[in-house]
Amino acid sequence: MNHLNLFSFKKDDLVKINLTAFDENNNEIDSLKQNNYLFTITDQKDETEIIPFLLINKPLKENIELEYQFSKDVLIEELKGKKIKFVISLLDYKTAEFIQLSAELKKAKNDIAIKDLNFQNKTKELQHVEEQLKLALNDVKKAKEAQVVERLTLPKEELDNIKKYSLQKFVEDFTNPYGTLKMAINAGENSSSQEVKNYLMGFKMVLGMLENSLNNHGITEFQPSLNTEFDPETSKIIEQVVNDDLKPNTILKVNQNGFKLYDRVIKPALVVASKYSDEKAKTKENKKNKKMKTKQ
By its UniProt entry, which SUPFAM superfamilies does this protein fall under (predicted)? Predict the structure, then answer.
């Protein structure tokens, strides 16, 4: 069974044939002979290119004979009004669906090739990024090592300062219990109990040893002078009391002494300072504003 007979030529099928033409006397027409004639089946009639039209819906065979009566209006002079027999030998045949699928397959292959190329490019980019990251991490490692070396090779003056103020944290933590001990001793001074006084002698000896040890390490206790102007570098105001006879921020009382480590204030003194009453402060402000207006 010839399986070609199961098919027929359809529109847009691609066909390749050898074509021979004969006139009514069975004489071969050389001008119409074509070898490897490639064309697409069409449903549009064109007598100058009649074979693609004649084959539509014809059974698919290896050898085909067709007859066609040309009109008198055909442009080819030797064909006007003549009946021509065409002998066709089928060389190749591709259906429209096959052509479309082939085109889609080709496009898919191209797309895959492009995506593969993109993938390769992205892979190269990723490798480049990984290399850059490794270099960056290596730079960070070197920088850290350099910092360690730098710390180990600090200038003598800076190393001396680090050593000089290394007790700062200790002083900050020590001042509270030290102050509590002094307050306890001061409170005990007013006691009439001989037993308490005996304890005080021991506490004072301990306090004296502590003070000597602190002084030996550059730690000194200081007390701001009363009736002097508050210095924010060494003191901290914890309360303000109205006193119109003194300039604002005049120290009235020292609640707690401050501490220095050499020339650095570690803990500021806690003081009570003066301030103007609201009425006097307002008066001062008005005078100041009048002076400014006068200057303008």
Answer: Coiled-coil domain of nucleotide exchange factor GrpE, Head domain of nucleotide exchange factor GrpE
